[in-house]
Specification:
The protein is mainly alpha-helical. Helices cover 64% and strands 4% of the residues. The longest helix is centred in the N-terminal third of the chain and has 32 residues.
Length: 222
C-alpha cells in the first residue's frame, strides 16, 4: 500500500508562514533589544527580596546590592545604545511590512497596500504591548538575566504571532488567538499577584512604562 502524502491547502501554508514569520521577527529583533537594554544596564536582573517596613501593611521589594528593583530606563542608556534600540524597533516594522507583502492573502488586512500598512501597525503595536507586558511580569517575578534573554529570544515573538492570528481570515483562528491571549494575560496577572509582595499587574505595567520613558526612578513594589 502506498502511503498518501499529506498536502496542506495553499491558504493554510500561507497562514502558517505568516504566523511563523511574525514569531521569528519578534523573537529575533526584540530579543536583541532585550539583550542590548539589559547589557547596557551593566548588571543582571537580581531576584527581589521582600522586606517588611514599620507599617506591617506595606512591603517594599529590595534587590541585593541595589536600593530597589528598578526596570531599565531608555533615557539612561548611552546615546549609541538608544539609537540601536530605535533602529531594531524600526527594523521590526520593516520586517513585518515585508512579511505582510510575502503572505498577502493570509489575512483580511493584507489585500492591498493600505490594508497591509494597517496590518503592520496592528501586529507591530499590539505585539510590542504584549512583549512589554511579559517583560514587566518577568521583572516583577524576579527572573534572572539568562532566563529573561532565553524567554525573549524564544517566546518574545509570541505576542506578535497572536495578534497576527487575530487578523487571519478564518474566524476560528481569531477566536483561538484571542482566547490564548486572554489566558496569558490572566496568567501574568495571577503570577504577579501570587508574589510575596502581591501587585496589580496593570498598575505595575503603567509604573514601569512611565519609568522607562521618563528616565525617573522605578516603581516601588508593595
Amino acid at each position: 500500500m502506498v502511503a498518501r502524502r499529506l498536502h496542506w491547502p495553499p491558504d493554510a501554508r500561507l497562514m502558517a508562514r505568516q504566523l511563523v514569520g511574525a514569531w521569528l521577527c519578534g523573537s529575533v529583533l526584540m530579543g536583541t533589544v532585550a539583550w542590548g537594554i539589559m547589557s547596557a544596564q551593566g548588571t543582571s536582573i537580581p531576584v527581589p527580596t521582600p522586606v517588611k517596613l514599620a507599617d506591617p501593611a506595606r512591603i517594599t521589594v529590595f534587590c541585593p546590592g541595589q536600593p530597589s528593583c528598578e526596570p531599565p530606563s531608555f533615557f539612561q542608556l548611552m546615546p549609541l545604545a538608544r539609537l540601536a534600540v530605535l533602529a531594531l524597533v524600526a527594523l521590526l516594522f520593516v520586517a513585518l511590512a515585508v512579511l505582510s507583502w510575502w503572505t498577502a492573502g493570509a489575512s483580511w488586512l493584507t489585500g492591498d497596500g493600505r490594508a497591509r500598512l494597517l496590518w503592520v501597525l496592528l501586529v507591530g503595536g499590539g505585539g510590542l504591548l504584549g512583549w512589554s507586558y511579559a517583560a514587566v511580569i518577568t521583572f516583577a517575578a524576579g527572573f534572572g538575566f539568562a532566563a529573561q534573554l532565553a524567554l525573549a529570544y524564544t517566546a518574545g515573538g509570541l505576542p506578535f504571532a497572536l495578534v497576527a492570528g487575530m487578523l487571519l481570515r478564518p474566524w476560528r483562528a481569531n477566536v483561538v488567538a484571542g482566547g490564548v491571549s486572554a489566558g496569558l494575560v490572566a496568567a501574568g496577572f495571577l503570577m504577579v499577584a501570587g508574589q510575596p509582595a502581591p501587585q496589580d499587574v496593570f498598575t505595575l505595567y503603567a509604573d514601569y512604562a512611565r519609568s522607562f520613558f521618563s528616565g525617573g526612578p522605578g516603581p516601588i513594589l508593595y
